[in-house]
Specification:
The protein is globular and about 40 Å long. Strands 1, 2, 3, 4, 5, 6, 7 and 8 form an eight-stranded mixed β-sheet that branches. The N and C termini lie far apart (42 Å). The protein is α/β, with parallel strands linked by helices. The protein is 25% helix and 24% strand.
Length: 163
């Protein structure tokens, strides 16, 4: 990849949201930061400071769940929160069709289609979190409350608990 900035769709979303200045804070890495662990290692932050943007199918309808990088989504809690019968991870095709981005580069906002967004409260434990900027090579920092707001997310508790 030769671009140094975010995905063009994400750059447009930043302009639309009045976040043009965020462009200067986007970091690009030569190696992919597809996983939360890869991103945390590249940035030099805690794994829980990574904001994962995960697409699930809730009774077949895509829903975005924002989760800290150190945690897993409890699909049963998501199912109850949404009041649906079945929740499962969406496949790569659904993710790209819904968001316009490939898995590993999905940002928390700026998607091709509007979806319901849930954000786990655990994200608010940090002053700053890092999220994908539309490619597996780019990330950006943002205060979690601001990120949740721009994503139009509902704060929920959907983190898998240790048993």
């Amino acid at each position: 990849m030769t671009t140094t900035g975010p995905h063009p769709r994400f750059a447009e979303a930043l302009r639309t949201l009045g976040l043009d200045g965020l462009d200067a804070r986007i970091r690009r890495f030569p190696d992919e930061t597809r996983t939360a662990a890869e991103a945390a290692a590249a940035i030099g932050c805690e794994l829980s400071q990574i904001c994962k943007s995960l697409i699930f199918a809730a009774d077949g309808v895509p829903v975005l769940v924002l989760m800290d990088g150190a945690s897993r989504v409890d699909v049963e809690l998501v199912r109850r929160e949404l009041g649906v019968d079945k929740v499962a991870r969406a496949d790569a095709g659904v993710v790209r069709e819904t968001t316009g981005y490939a898995i590993g580069g999905v940002p928390p906002f700026g998607h091709r289609t509007r979806t319901r967004v849930l954000a786990d409260r655990g994200l608010l434990a940090h002053d700053v979190v890092w999220a994908a900027a539309g490619t597996p090579h780019t990330v950006f920092p943002m205060a979690p409350a601001e990120l949740v707001d721009h994503a139009g997310a509902t704060l929920v508790d959907v983190r898998e608990r240790a048993s």
